[in-house]
Predict the structure.
Amino acid sequence: MTQEDFYLQAGIRHNNGESWRELIEDFYNQFNQMLSVDAIRKRVKRVCNRQNNSNQTTQQTGCSISRDYEAHNKDGSIDATKTVLDNVFALGGDKSKILNYLGYSDKEWELVSWRISQWDGGVGGAPRYSLQYRLEPKCLSYVNYLEEAKKIFQQEIEPVTIKTIKEVTGLKNQKLMEIPPIELHLGKISDSIQTGEEYTLEIAKKRFYDICENIIRKQSIEKCGKCLVVVGSDFFNSESDCCTSVHKIPQQNSHGYIKLFDEGLKMYLSFILTLKKYFNTVDIMLCAGNHARAMETYLYFALQQRFFDDKTVNFIENYKQTQCYSFGDCAIFYNHGDAKLAQIIKSIPAEFGSEWGSHKFRELHLGHLHKEVTVDDEGGMITRRIGSPCSTDAWHAENRYVGATKKHEVFIWHTKFGLEQIYYINTRT
């Protein structure tokens, strides 16, 4: 978001009751600049007047915007203006009908307030209407997500077809393939003109299945008896309000959260069904991220329900922010990595005293920064940040968080000898 875009949004938000002080705080959080009340008021007025002057048909005053505009707020709500040719009140005040008329799903959004004003001299002399409205997201509950998941379970989900590998024999139970969270940010969009990188739902899915295929090709060489699949760590791009992270940072998404949850669940179902064909046992653990903590937790619960009676698929039922997985003499700790690194490292021996003392090899695996970083043997533990296959979005491009290799890592462990191999899977699309 540019500063001018912010001022345009601020005009709508102020007209809907937000104070200048609140807008100043939001501006500081986004641009690291502090403005006075007088300064932000003048800038908003200047930008809005310039926009109004570009459209001579408007009769709006103050800082309203005549063009169609949608402002995504930090709390997940949306303030918008939209030019309509019909008087929306003709819909009888039915909120569901108004939402559908405006192109929003009444399953995902609540119409909180709206105000309509008339413009004279519209198309063919007919009046036009400017609709200002506020939407708030509806968040699905755990029960609602499971109901949505049941619809997916009724569909026929097939494993990924690996054309040249039909089976893998001679599996070694003393070897583990660790598959860290695929930090895909499913739903994130990126425009190559703005960022230099294209990213869509279809591209994200293609990269996911490429990773799946490469994992099986590595397995045909390593012949691990067991694999660990870690779910979460920003697999989805935003929380169930479909426009913000856990900390209410606005996100640009390609689809609503129901569509993204459905697609994500089908992807992981296909993935696990594939892994079952090539491993003796599949262990699944949750490590939720800071973009979609609830959605990733519900994804984990849905997978647990699907494979409830499957003896080859085991779920590690621990929902703490830091997790520990034991494999022989190896202890693998997990945290998304959005907290202070020093604090995470410091807390592990205290939180996992038994595991810390009883294992010879210890590693902490983190995500969050979308780049590979390794700190060797810090306090008796190796810390690794894992890369991400997702593309750069507009916010990261504007703030120069660019250049990291788009990749995923896979780790091969031995019960007695610790970490033996790291495989890198670079994106192909």
